[in-house]
Amino acid sequence: MNIGIVCYPTFGGSGVIATELAKGLARRDHQVHILSYAKPARLDTFQTNISYHEVNLQSYPLFEYPPYDLALANQMANLISYEGIDILHVHYAIPHATSAYLAKQILGEQAAHVPIITTLHGTDITVVGSDPSYKSVVDFSINQSDGVTAVSEYLRKETYERFDIEKEISVIPNFIDLERFKRTNKEHFRKAISPEDEKIIVHVSNFREVKRVPDVVTMFAYILEHGIKAKLLLVGDGPDRNRAEQRCRELGICDQVRFLGKQEQVEEVLSIADLFVIPSGSETFGLAALEAMGCGVPVISSNIGGLPEVNIHGETGYLCDLGDTDAMGKYGVEILSDPKKHKRMSMKARKNAEKFDMDKMVSEYENYYKKIQSELMEHRN
Question: Residue 150: which of 285, 304, 290 has the closest Cα?
Answer without folding.
Answer: 285
